[in-house]
Amino acid sequence: MAIIYDYENDLRVAQLSSKIKDELRIIYRKHLARAQSKTRATTAILSFKTQRLRSLAIISGLLDIIKHGKFEITSIYNLREKHIEFLVNYWIKVKQLSPGTIANRVTYFQGFTSWIGKGNLMQEVDKYASMENLPKRSGVATVDKSWAEKGIDPSELISKIAKHDPHVGIQLALQIAFGLRAEESRLLRPHDAVIKIKGDTYMMVSDGTKGGRPRRVEIEHDSQLSLIELAKKLVNTRSKTTIPDRYETLAQWVNHYYYVIGKYGLTKKMLGVTSHGLRHEYLNNLYQELTGKESAVRGGDLPENDILLIARQIIAEHAGHSKISKANAYVGSHAVQRIQASKDLSDQDILQAMTDCQQNKMKAALQLKCARSYLYSRLKKIEESNQLQHADNEPAPLLA
Fold this sequence. Notes:
This protein has helices spanning 8-13, 18-31, 48-68, 81-94, 99-115, 154-164, 166-178, 182-187, 190-193, 222-232, 250-263, 277-291, 305-319, 328-331, 334-343, 347-356, 361-368, 372-393; strands at residues 194-197, 200-205, 215-218. The protein is mainly alpha-helical.
């Protein structure tokens, strides 16, 4: 069952006028939990996390406009285009938020401005001129974010955490066994998860999914069924999830969850990985099972096109995405990896490969793992550089 976020505490501590708080209270009550995306699979209310992020982003944005923009806003209905223009520039130039964070905040404010009847105030994120100098989001993984890449044995570390806190341990184990997001593992109800269709066994994932898209994940190993049976022994008597009974709110459990995994170094600053890396671990391992090769982010060779297409489709489905291109966010792209690798090639690397391959450019490109067009352009630059150097070294003509 989805949870309605209690936004009252956000409003209580916000340094906004009583009038603005009252106005926000009214529109939050009506709109905060409702989805605004037209591509969302269901009309169910948004996740607790999304509701919370919406609330905090809107309050923070209003405070930025009033405090840092020095605009006298006495009502949310006084918002004008100049206020929004200032806000986006402030996010970019002063707060220096990442492109992804800015895109999310623009989305939240698009919803907010539509709630107050001013949906035309907020443009699409790429329409703001100040966004042009920021790096573009590619949506393609260029590094392996799985635990194994950092030399961490997931089974060993999860077992240690499970001894300290069985509920955190079981949620981590569910993430790597089925490729779940952390939110999905928290809200999974083990007793209702397993279904059978035409003799095949699946786990249904519905609560906590992005976009409200339910999906089913094949259960192919006895160890996966055993894990679900173990999870059944840890369920909450009220919600039927694996969140312990003593936690009254989801927020309390989330804070405890990250506190526990933080003690074991599962942060980017410490071990260099997060619990989300288990999802990457699962999907990259699945890619190898499907293609017989390592994924692009793990330096694997390119499989046959038909095999690659099927693998990417299955990866996207298992990750809970409707677009096949979303698979690249986990397993990467061979084309992008070639570009990344090409940037590190020295002139000497290129000339040596040409010598090794007896001046055969096609073979040299394969050896260097770069595109032929890139190799041609680099060879041309090397040749032009050599000609220029040769010209500079020629003795000056004698005067008559």
